[in-house]
Amino acid sequence: MSVNAKYKDSVFTKLFNDEDRLRELYAALEGIEYDPSISITINTLEDVLYMDRINDLSFTAGDKLVFVIEHQSTLNWNMPLRILSYIARVYEKIISRRALYKTTLVKIPKPEFIVLYNGPEKAPEKWELRLSDAFIGLEPGEKVPLDLIVTVYNINYGQNTELLQRSENLSGYAQFVAKVRENEAVMPLEQAVTEAVQYCIKNRILERFFEEHGGEVLNMAFGEWDWDEAKAAWQEEVWEEAEAKYQPILAENQQALAENQQALAEKDRENQELRRKLQEAGIDT
Asked: What is the pLDDT of residue 134?
C-alpha cells in the first residue's frame, strides 16, 4: 500500500476546515478569549487546474482580519513569496471587481500571515519571515515599497505550550503528529499512523474528529481504506488483548472459587456428621 508523505498537511486541513475549530484557533493565536459570536468565513483557494487547495486554510474573522495559514512539515524560507500570490487571489475572491473602479476608498480586511510548523528540524518557538529578505541589492535600512511578514509558530508538541493550551484542537493535532513520529521510529509509517489514530481515540485526543473522520485520515495517508473493517479489527484486537491479559486472573479466581466451594462442602459434611452424633446422644440441635 502506497503512503502519502504529505498526510499531515491533509489531516491539518481536514481538522481545521471547520468554523468552530477555526474560531478557537483564531482566539488562541490572538491571545483573546474564545467568542462564539465571531463571524468566520472560510475562503480557502482551490486550484482550478489541479482541483486541489492552493493554501491550507484562509478565512476572515469578522471584518477585521484575513488569515492565510500555511501548515508545513519542512522549513521553507520562500513562504512570503508564496503567500504574496495567495493573498492577491483571496482579495479577488472577497471583493467585487466593480468595487475596484470606485473612486472612494475601498476598505479591505487587514491581513495576517501565519505558518504553523511541526517538522523534525529544530526551530525556535516563534520567528518571522519577510519578503524583503529575498530582495536583490537591498541595502541595510533601505525602505521598500512592498513587504510581507509571515509569523511562524513551532507547534511541535512541547513547544509553544501556552499557545497549545489555548487551543485543544491544535494541541490534539500536535499530539497526533508526535505519536506518529514516535511510532515511526520503530514501525512502518502505515502502521505508525494507524496506531496513532487508535491511541488518540483511546486517550480522548481529538476523539470525536477521529471517530468521525478516521477513515478519511487513513485514506489521506494510504489511499483506499475500509474504516469499518479497521474498527472491527481493532475491536477484535482489544478483546484478544483483554483476554490474554485477564484470562490467567480469571482462571486463578475460578480455581480459588472451586477450592472454596470444595472447602465449604467439606465443612457442610462435617456439620451434618456433628448434628447426627448430637442427635444420637439425645441432644437437640
From this structure: 94
**Can you name the residues that pair with 68 across neighbouring β-strands?**
58, 113
Question: Which pLDDT band holds residue 7 (cuts at 50, 70, 90)?
Answer: low
Instruction: Give the residues across from 115 on adjacent strands.
Output: 70, 152
From edge to edge, which strands make up the β-sheet containing 65-72?
A: 40-42, 57-61, 65-72, 110-117, 149-154, 126-130
**Domains in the chain, number:** 1
C-alpha cell at 160: 509553544
> C-alpha cell of 46?
482551490
Could you tell me if residue 17 is inside a domain? Answer: yes
**DSSP of 160-172, one letter per residue?**
SHHHHHH-HHHHH
C-alpha–C-alpha distance, residues 15 and 213, integer Å:
9
Q: Residues in the chain, how many?
A: 285
List beta partners, residue 47.
Answer: 52
Kind plus residue range of the DSSP H or E element containing 56: none
- Is residue 42, in this structure, part of any structural domain at all? yes
* Domain with 37 in it: 7-167
pTM of the predicted structure, to 2 decimals: 0.72
Domain assignment present for residue 74? The answer is yes
Instruction: Identify whether 253 is part of a domain.
Output: no
Least confident of 13-27, 65-79, 192-206, 241-255: 241-255
Task: Give long-range contacts, CB 8 A cutoff, 24+ apart: 24-30.
Answer: 24/167, 24/168, 24/169, 25/167, 25/169, 25/170, 26/59, 26/61, 26/65, 26/67, 27/166, 27/167, 28/163, 28/166, 28/167, 28/170, 29/114, 29/153, 29/163, 29/167
Cite the DSSP H helix spans in the chain: 7-16, 19-30, 79-94, 161-166, 168-184, 189-202, 207-222, 227-280
